[in-house]
Each structure stands twice: as C-alpha cells, then as structure tokens.
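Q: Sequence in, structure out?
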Amino acid sequence: MHKFNPSEHKKLNLEERYRLMPPELFIDEIAKEAGNLSKKEGAFVLADVGCGSGFFSIPLIKRLQNKNILFFALDISTEMLGIFIKNLKAEIDESNLPKIKTLQSEEAFLPLGDRSVDLLILTNVFHEIENRKAFLNELKRVLKKRGTLFVLDWDKEDKNPFMGPPISERVSEKETQAVLTELNFKGIRALPLYSSSFVIRAENL
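A: Exactly. Output:
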C-alpha cells in the first residue's frame, strides 16, 4: 500500500488543494460537534490521526482555541510531525500551545488511552491503510462511548481526478461505510462537502 512521502509535503498546501477542498467546509461540521461537546462536557479531547502538515487540524485548532480542549496530533512520520509543529507555531498564539500534543503513532497502534477521545478526525489517510478493520478497531479503542469519528478521503468514484492518489489506490464512500457498519459504528452518514472527496460521520458504541 502506497504511503505519502514526507518529502512531497509542499503538495499538501498548494493553492489548488485549497480551491478543491476548502478546509472551512469540513471544519464547520467538526465545530458543530465540538460546540455540542462543550455544552455537555465542558472540556473535551480531539485527535487528528495522520495530521500531516496540519491542512485541516491547524485551522480547526484556531477555530476552537477559546474552548477547553486537549488536541492530539498524530502521525507515523516524525518528519511530518516536525512540519506540523512548524506550521502550528506560525499560526497559533503561544498561550494555546499547551493544549496541543504531538505524538508519533503506528498504523496499528495509537499511543492514546482506552476510551479517551471524544472526537477523532481521519483525513486522506484511510486509503493508505493496509488492514482497515484492525485500524478502525484501534480507533474504536481510543474513542469514548458515543465518540464521533469523521473520515475524509479521496473518492474512488471521482469522475474528474486531477489531484490526490491514483484512482486505483483510493477507496469509495460505499466501501468505507460498509466496513464501518461491519465494525458496529452507528449513526453513519455521508456529508456532501466536496466533489473529489467523501466525508463520513460515524459514532462509536
């Protein structure tokens, strides 16, 4: 299974990508969930698994920086985590940095406690995973009961692909929903936000 090469990290923040998938659309959906959590729980925990350069998570952190959050940014690449930290420090006030923790992870293991995360995002990572069931079970382990998972990925059904991985390496919305259903995620629904990517929201039980 092809993995993203950190040496190509500049591709992650190209203007074309911002036009194709403006992060604000995705962040709006996550912010709604975060707002509900804030009302119910006060403090809450978010995690971005495969944070990359921070294309989605850094503007999300900026949106939520006045809330009582703990944000974990995870990636299997130490190089990508270094790029994330550099980008983060350029965008976030120093007083908010203690709310954000970076962790190196493995594909089949996340260095987070059982049932410790309220809201988890997975962006453009799922198509790279070797064993998708094992990976999703690991996400289930760290998500709290009724915790929310957002999956965004390049759509195999995209009719006009001009960015992202080859169609042969992608996964479809239907395939992703099927494996989420098999692993007993509930409340699974697609959010029609982008033409080239699918977004799925699901709840852990």
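Residues 54 and 178 are 28 Å apart (CA to CA).
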